[in-house]
# Entry
Amino acid sequence: MVERFFAEITRKRIRRGVFKNVDELKQAIMDYLDNHNGQPQALHPDQDATEIFSKVARANQVSESQH
# Structure
């Protein structure tokens, strides 16, 4: 989930921006986080743990087969 979040912030905010210095980049990240955290969403409100673990297991199998 962490990697997914960093990919999202990179795609939606960092790659689209032009930053003159590190402070501007930091501010853009903080603005994104404030907006993101201001609109919380449940991840899987309609799935039980069995379904989620099943998907994780399938994802692991795919990942392992690619390496």
Q: What stands out?
A: Helices lie at 2-14, 22-37, 49-65.
